[in-house]
Amino acid sequence: MKLLSKNVTKDGEGDVALVPEEPEDMWHAFNLISEGDSVRSTTIRKVQTESSTGSSSSNRVRTTLTICVENIDFDTQACMLRLKGKNIEENQFVKMNAYHTLELELNRKFTLRKASWDTVSLERIDMACDPIKSADLAAVIMQEGIAYVCLITSSMTLDRAKIDVTIPRKRKGFVAQYEKGLQKFYDNVLQAVLRHINFEIVKCILICSPGFVKDQFFQYMFKIAVETDNKTLLENKGKFMLVHSSSGFKHSLREALQDPAVLNKISDTKAAGEVKALETFYTTLQTEPSRAFYGKKHIEKANEAQAIEILLLSDKLFRCQDIKLRKQYVHLVDSVRDSGGEVKIFSSLHISGEQLDQLTGVAAILRFPMPELEEDTDDED
Length: 381
Fold this sequence. Notes:
The chain is 35% helix and 32% strand. The strands form three sheets. Strands 1-2-7-3-4-5-6 form a seven-stranded antiparallel beta sheet, with helices on one face. Strands 10-9-8-11-12 form a five-stranded mixed beta sheet. The chain contains twelve helices and 16 strands. The model has no long low-confidence stretch (mean pLDDT 87). Helix 8 runs parallel beside helix 11 (351-357). This is Protein pelota homolog. Its main location: cytoplasm.
């Protein structure tokens, strides 16, 4: 994301001009824009004109509109952001208060104005515009007959391909058919890897599966690479890493990312930091339950006692339509940091973020035990 200008006053009001440069920037924009904000960008509008003879014709014209956002739609697969709202500035083609849908596009400037910029939103801009990009990661999660090719960026996990091939059972008299079905499956996965993984950007590719499927696929892939003299694969062989998982479905990616060898390999990515923090929370919850809590009520009580060492929050909480509730979470973040605690905001498009959402979206590891919070839970039960 490129920052063109930033005009924010001391009381938090102001506007920011940004240019999204890659698909992930649309996810940052989705987290920045809230209902009630105003967004200015160029768009195409269908305009009807009537001639002196009474005949009408319609033309598509490019114009610049400013709308007050009422509805936000984010397409995770296409990484496209659509904003619907009323026009709030004079325009020769669009009447005041007429509805229009803006589609934010790559390499096209947009200006976002908020009545109040909070610290979480301003940090999101700093993170999005950071020129030092985290190491990107790709993963192939598979078992016989099914596979997913995923891209894991610093903010989200994207499904890029799903391969589903029926493989005949391996039994007497059908071994040849089984081998043929398996080869077809491996070939489809290989084509998906070549099509969807950019080896110039991706620094590590995980191949995850139960049993020996990952090993067999890895051998097949480089056998084909040698036969076809595929230099891209041969030159990047060191980037592949074989990891055990309990199944070939996407949810098993969380297990793979917790593998110590994998964490070491991708230690400089945001995804690894999130996975490690969540794993620490689960371990603490099992071994010292009076130092690990989740749920807004308990976390606020722990914060009053300045007991929070690490606060885990889902970015979904900052997209809520209730402005009062959003301000409470922003205040919680500021308060924990003021008392010397660490705050980790999880992306809800990451596997770890999905796990945190199942725990109400807010959790914390405390500096010291607070058994009285456990008693509160028992009373509620």
